[in-house]
Amino acid sequence: MELREKLRAKVEIFQENEITEYHIYRLLAKTVKSSENREILLEIAVDEKRHYNDWKDITGRDIKPNKIKVWFFYWISRIFGITFGIKLMERGEESAQDNYSRLSGQIDAVDAMIKDENDHEDQLIEMLDEEHLRYVGSIVLGLNDALVELTGALAGLTLALQKTQLIALSGLITGIAAALSMGASEYLSTKEEQNSKHPVRASLYTGGTYMLTVFILILPYLLFSNYYFCLMLTLLFGVLVIGIFNYYVSVVKDEGFKHRFFEMTVLSLSVAALSFGIGYFIRIFMGIEL
Fold first, then answer.
1. How far is CA 102 from CA 98, 115, 135, 222, 224, in A?
2. What does the alpha-carbon distance between residue 270 and residue 266 come to, in Å, rounded to a whole number?
3. Domain that holds residue 157
4. Do residue 281 and residue 197 come from a single domain?
5. In terms of domains, do 122 and 180 share one?
6. Which helix (H) or strand (E) holds 187?
7. What is the pTM of this model?
8. What is the mean pLDDT of residues 41-63?
9. Residue (of 39, 10, 44) closest to 24 by Cα position
10. Do 24 and 86 contact (CB within 8 A), yes or no?
């Protein structure tokens, strides 16, 4: 088939995407423990290779995969979980469906490819089953409480104590105690609900997430001496944690990002601002000087 130069350039991009995704799915298949999930990934890889060959029949060219993209998704999946990596791939699949649909009627193989891409999405959604995703609620609980409570506590302590070492020590003691309390509460709550979640694991996810967030927020007070600068960094770290976590959840759960991010950010910063004011007035009215 003779292709116009513009059309040929587009088709060669699609051809490269298909062979790239073929290698990605094959690599991901080697990382999953479930034999059923592995078979699905390999089956999708075979489909991607067939799409590549369909494009090759049209262009008459061999095209190499994008190695950077292959290894990017491979390591993303190893670090953040197979579900996150696959969902990012799925977003690329949706883009491919849109691009293919624009060629419908111009190239015969396009309609069949669109059907395959839709089948891929359904198969991927069915196969997603990672333990930590069943405990997202517990992670959200630990993260949200730590961000709201500790940003507020550190803001109040910053004005009340005005010494970074004392603020860090007080915040660390408060944070560790709260993490243990949250973990214990989540254990009892999950045990009472008698659902598919394991109480001990739910407790560890909640308490562990809380503890990790505590150390991230307190870190500036351990590194710098200017307490106002430390508070600014703590609030910045809090917003970054909220952004990263909500982006992760928006990908793996197919949920909106902006609303969740805005809601958590406003809540955390509002509590911090209120606590900052409380710390100021307590220091003034009680006449405490450290």
1. 7, 14, 40, 56, 56
2. 6
3. 132-286
4. yes
5. no
6. helix 164-193
7. 0.71
8. 84
9. 44
10. no
